[in-house]
Amino acid sequence: MRNILEFEKPIAQLEAKIEELRHLGSNGNINIAEEVAKLEAKASRLRRTTFARLSAWQKVQVARHPDRPHGKDFVNFLINDFTELAGDRAFADDHAIIGGMGRFRGRSVVVMAHERGHDMQTRVYHNFGMAKPEGYRKAIRLMRLAERFNLPVITLIDTAGAYPGVDAEARGQAEAIARSIETCLDLRVPIVSVVIGEGGSGGAIAIAAGNHVYMLEHAVYSVISPEGCASILWRSAEHAEDAAEALKLTAQDLLRLEVIDGVIAEPIGGAHRDPDLTMTRVGDDIENSLEFFAALSGEAIKSHRRDKFLSMGKVGLA
Questions:
Q1: Strands 97-104, 79-84: parallel, antiparallel or unpaired by DSSP?
Q2: Which of 48, 112, 156, 297 could be a cystine partner for 99, CB 3.0 to 4.6 Å?
């Protein structure tokens, strides 16, 4: 692993010891298979117990892991014959959101995804996954295109939030996000959304107001980043860990609060440990959702989405 999180260091040390023993064994006649097997079992147990009891802040770290598969990885893995459609037909193309048409397991779809980039060059190119107004206006254009041709929409969310720069505000950032949410809620075709990493504020929900919303096991979804929340409430980003606990931003918290529809299991150790398995599981849940909505009319699909969001936060009367 190229990037090791602080709480993963004991696991990494065991894995390094295993590799060292394997190297010694391959260069001599010493039989160390039994010792390697014991260490592998120990590392597996430690990995399992560590990731079974992650704190909210540790889940934020896993969701932001630089080796985690990003939007483009999911699109390349799940979508055949993907044709990217660029630009909002008004100002520019926003590389923080990629989108287009393709075939998902034999079904024509429109797909959109946040892309954060994997290294400094691509992160700058994709603006770290933080979209500007033209990104959300592109999303609106693609959603209306999907409705015109009766194609389901798949959205993959991974952003710290919408870009907060002056230029974005000058071009109507809040209005663009609001219009994108409105379009999500108004469509007569199904929208299936998956939070694959970090779902931050309006920048996430702008393309995540779907009929079914799923989260990967160690993804996070919140109205503000823990650092931003800590800066407001404690006047210091040093309290980000406390803020993460208070925000109830984990997939497990949000499923319990009925904000999302399901949690998709990740390989032990996080999605970056086995990206192909992770993306296959995501594809399975998307396929099940699309099968469910295939038999419903456009009006029923729209009503399903409306009722889903209107029911959130209701408290039963005693």
A1: antiparallel
A2: 112
Interstrand relation of 153-159 and 191-200 (parallel, antiparallel or unpaired): parallel
Query: What CATH number is given for 60-310 in this structure?
Result: 3.90.226.10
pLDDT in tens, 266-314: 999 999 999 999 999 999 999 999 999 999 999 999 999 999 998 887 6
Most confidently predicted of 21-35, 41-55, 57-71:
57-71
- CA-CA distances (angstroms) from residue 199 to 63, 90, 117, 225? 9, 26, 16, 9
**The pLDDT of residue 15:** 84
pLDDT at site 237 = 84
Segment 156-193, tens digit of pLDDT: 999 999 999 999 999 999 999 999 999 999 999 999 99
Instruction: Give the span between the Cα atoms of 201 and 17, in whole angstroms.
Output: 42
